[in-house]
Design goal:
By secondary structure, the chain is an alpha+beta fold. The protein has eleven helices and 21 strands. The protein has three domains: 181 residues, FAD/NAD(P)-binding domain (3-Layer(bba) Sandwich); 54 residues, no CATH class; 85 residues, D-Amino Acid Oxidase, Chain A, domain 2, CATH 3.30.9. The longest helix has 24 residues.
Length: 377
């Protein structure tokens, strides 16, 4: 009989990995405390910008670039399976530059090995205004990354969930997992809704709530909680009708992301305030002020909506991916922080490979959960 896997968490990471596991032959059940995609996955902006999130080459950038490369294939597969349009676009991002040091750093980035693949170019003087007339007149230089994708993240997580269900994944909403069961040195399932649910393997993909679980490291070894917690992000949208921007614009502390729906998203704050679900006047004012400094006409557009979400964050800012040390059949995929949408395809591919084969792909080695266990020991 095919192995059974319980996925704890129905955000984009849980749904994408469940989809990959089901295609690999597993019997998969996703357990979600609320509704699939109802937390960070649905609260994001959908910008797929690996070079913007990773200022220097390294393991994280390699992981992000590989996931970016998968997106056209993923979008086509999800569309064929579900008929959903996830509004995938490749319209690029402009990064306004301020001062000589930023311009020179950007010039260096145009020489990176991936620069040609991503269409990286330094724009100066009139070329900035020609590319994006709405930018503030005081912005005299910008880095263009023409290959950045955008996607409607809410539709994307819904498409992943539908595609997973079409492959036989059972998605149970409104059921909260209270304990991960480990007997001897093997995961045996979970306790959810007061009942035991058995399985051959368990994947913890509970986003900002992943730190709530005690994970044993073998017989007689005390459990550890992952050092994962919430970082609140507040975001708003304004009218983008008629269209104001043709590119996403990413400043020092705010981004603007136009969408085909006729709105432009403006985000996002980074707040270590715990699970306080609140949209504040101060945060919205800050976002609008920063957006207007980049694109003055934003101040003339109507505010459409505002919301917040809890990004899962680890102390080193990197995702936690792979097998849990000392326990067979227990795996982790969490702490993607601001990059859950971007990293969903590669996370699904690599973590499902771990579950299906027992091998850890080389690309995952810098992100294994034992980096925190070793530190605490």
């Amino acid at each position: 009989m095919p192995p059974s896997v319980l996925v704890v968490g129905g955000g984009i990471i849980g749904c994408a990995t469940a989809h990959a596991l089901a295609k690999g032959g597993c019997r998969v059940t996703v357990l979600e405390r609320d509704t699939p995609g109802g937390e960070a996955s649905g609260a994001a902006a959908g910008l797929l910008a690996p070079l913007g999130e990773s200022r220097e080459p390294g393991p994280f950038q390699r992981l992000a670039v590989e996931s970016w490369r998968l997106y056209p294939q993923v979008v086509a597969e999800l569309g064929a399976a579900t008929g959903m349009d996830v509004e995938h676009m490749t319209a690029g991002t402009l990064y306004p530059l301020f001062g000589h040091a930023e311009v020179e750093a950007a010039r260096d980035r145009t020489t990176w090995p991936v620069a040609q693949e991503f269409g990286v170019a330094l724009l100066e003087g009139a070329a900035v205004r020609e590319r994006e007339p709405a930018l503030d007149a005081g912005i005299e230089a910008a880095l263009l990354v023409a290959g950045d994708h955008w996607v409607n993240n809410e539709r994307l997580v819904a498409a992943y969930a539908q595609a997973a269900a079409a492959c036989g994944v059972v998605i149970r909403s409104g059921i909260e997992v209270s304990e991960i069961l480990v007997e001897g040195s093997r995961a045996r399932g979970v306790v959810a809704g007061g009942a035991r649910i058995g399985a051959d393997a368990v994947l913890l993909a509970a986003g900002a709530w992943s730190g709530h679980f005690s994970l044993p490291r073998g017989p007689g070894v005390p459990g550890d909680a992952l050092p994962v917690g919430p970082v609140r992000g507040q975001i708003l949208s304004v009218s983008n009708s008629p269209p104001l921007l043709g590119h996403a614009v990413h400043g020092r502390s705010v981004y603007l992301a136009p969408r085909p729906s006729g709105e432009c998203l403006v985000g996002a704050t980074v707040e270590h305030v715990g699970f306080v679900r609140e949209v504040t006047d101060e945060a919205l004012e800050h976002l609008i002020d920063e957006a207007v400094a980049l694109v003055p006409a934003i101040g003339e557009r109507s505010l459409l909506r505002s919301w917040c979400g809890f990004r899962p964050w680890a102390p080193d800012g990197l995702p936690i991916l792979g097998p849990w040390p000392g326990v067979e059949g227990l795996f982790v995929a969490t702490a993607h922080f601001r990059n859950g949408i971007l990293l969903a395809p590669i996370t699904a591919a690599l973590v499902s490979e771990c579950v299906l084969t027992g091998r850890v792909p080389a690309l995952l080695l810098p992100f294994l959960p034992d980096r925190f266990i070793s530190a605490s020991a």
